[in-house]
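Q: Can someone sanity-check these two? First one:
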Amino acid sequence: MRICFLTVRRVPPVESPLLVEVYRILESGGFEVESSIAEERVTRPDLLRPEHDLYVLKSHTELSLSLAGILHGEGALILSPYPACATAQNKIITSRRLRAAGVPIPDCWVTGRPAQMGRAAQERPLILKPYLGHRGEGIMRAESPDDLLAMPEPGSPLLIQHYVLGPGEDLKVYVVGEEVFAVRKPFSGDSFTRAGRPCPVSDEVRRIALDAGRALGLGLYGLDVIEAPAGPVVVDVNYFPGYKGVAGAAPLVAAYVEAYARGEVDLSAHPRETVI
C-alpha cells in the first residue's frame, strides 16, 4: 500500500522527528511512504487525481487543505477526513460543534469589527483570534474598549473569546485514537516548538478530549486547555499535532495510520460534513 503524507514547510527545513520515526515504522511494515509539501510543487488542480491508497494530512496551510478537498471529492482516503480537518481549522464552526457536544469552551462571538465588542471588553479581557489561524498567529488581547478601538481593521473574520484565567501554563492534550496524553508548558509565540512537561491526564480531561474528537470526527488531534478555577476549558483544537513531549508517540501514531489504511478505524460517524 502507498501512503502520502501531506506536510508543511519547516524552518529550518528538516523533517519532523516524529514523522521520520513514523515513516520508518510504516516502511518496515511493508508500506511505501512518500511526503509532499504543497507549496513546493506546481499542481494542476483540474488534473489532480488520487495516486496513493492513503493520504495523511499533516499540513494546516490553505493550499494543502484545498488540494485535500479536491482529493476528497475524487474519492481519496484521507486521514483525518477532509471535512473534519476543514471544520477543525475553522474556529467559528469548531466553537459551535464543541459547545453542542458539551465540551467546555469560553463564551465567544464572531465579528469583522473588533470595536463592536466594547461592552464585553468592559466586563473582562477578551482574546481575538483569526478564524482560520494556526500556531497562535495573529492572536490579540484586549483589556478595555480602548484596546479594541486601537486595533487595525482585520483582514478576516475574528473569533473573540472571554479571556480564561488559568495557572499561567497551557495544558496541551494529545489524542491518538482512544489514547490521551498531556503536557504542561507556558504559552508563548513559539511554544509550539517546545516539548513541555508530561503530566497525568485526569478523568475529566480525558472525557473532554474524547468528546471533542467525536464532535469533530478526528482521530489524531490536540487540544489547548486552560485549567480554570471552575474546571478545564478548551480554547483551541488542531488536527495531527506534533505530539512534542509525549514519549513513545511515533509507534502509536504509526499503528493508528496503519489501522486506518487497512480499514480498521471508522471515523464515518462524525457529524454531517462541513465544506469550507
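And here is the second, same format, sequence then C-alpha cells:
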Amino acid sequence: MSKYSIMLGSVKKMEDDLLGRLRAEVAGKNDDLSPEETAALDARVFNFANNDMSEAEKTGYSNYSYWGSTFRIFMKNKLAVATLFIIVIMLGFSIVRPYLPGQRDPARANDHPVTGMPYSNQPPSREYWFGTNRIGQDLWARIWSGTSTSLFIGFSVALVTSAVGIFVGILWGYVRKLDFLFTELYNILDNIPTTIVLILAAYVLNPSVQTIILAMCFTGWIGAARLIRNLVIIIRDQEFNIASRCLGTNLFRVMIKNLLPYLISVIMLRMALTIPGAIGSEIYLTYIGLGVPLNTPSLGNLLNEGRSVMMSPNLRYQLYAPVVIIGILTISFYLMGNAFADAADPKNHV
C-alpha cells in the first residue's frame, strides 16, 4: 500500500469521526432547544441548497451562432478574403463608374474635334486607358459597363436557380409522395439540351438581358434540385428529424431549421460556380450571334469583338482586357465559393 493511500485513509477516518461527533452533539441538543434555536443551529452547521430557476436555465444556454461561427472560419482564410475583396471592388466600381467625373459613355463614339473622324483602334494611352475599338468607343468604359451587365446576369441566374432548386429539392427529398412527380419532371427537362433552350428562347423572344436570364433559369434549377434532393434523403430519417415529426413540427420549420443548415455549404458552392457559368453561357450565345444586343456592352460582346481582330498584332489589346476580367472573376468566385462552403459546413464548427 502506498503512502498516498495511507494518507487518504487517515483523512477519511478523521472526517467520519468529526461528522459523527457533530451529529451526536446536534441530536443531543435538539431536545432542549426551541424551534428557533434549532433552525439557527442548522443554519450555522449545514449549508442548504437553494433552487434558482434563472440559474437553472443558464446551464442550458449557449451563445453559439451558426452564421457567426461561419464568418469567423471564413475570415481565417486570407486567400478567400482577398478574392471576396476583389469581387466587391470590381462589382462596386462597375456600378459607380458612370457617376464618377471624367467618365465616357460606353455607347458613344469619340470623334476628333477638328476632323470629325472617329478615334478608331487607338492603342491604350493616358486618355484612353484600354484603347478604343473600330468605331472609336472607349474600351475602359465598355469593359466596366460590360462587367456590370455580365455580373447582373450571373447573380440573377444564380439567385433564381438556387431558390427554385432549394425549394424543389427539399420537397423532392423530404416529402415521399412527391418523389414520383419530381422524378418524372426531372427526366423530361434534363433530357432537353440547355443549348437548344437558349437558342429557342433567343429566337422566340427579343434578344436582351432578360431573355438570357429567363432561358438560363428555365432548366438551370434542375441540377441544384437533384443534388439537394440526394442530400436531404441522407439526413431525412436522422434522429432530430424524426423527433421533429413526432412533435408535430410543420414542414416549413423543418426545412429552415433542420435541413437548410446542412445544405448551406453545397448551396453556396453551387451559387459561386453558377455565376461564372452564366457568364460563360452569355459569351457562348454572343459567339453564335444570339446573345446580348451589340448596343448593350457585355463581356461576351467585348470578347467577341476582340476575337475578330486577334489576328492583327496591333489590335490584340482589345482582347486582353475582357480575357483578364473574365479570368479574375472566374478564379475569384471559385476560390471564394470553396472557402465559404468549407466555413458553412456544420462539421467544421466547434
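A (reply): Looked at the second one. The CA atoms of residues 11 and 17 lie 10 Å apart. The longest helix spans residues 251-287.
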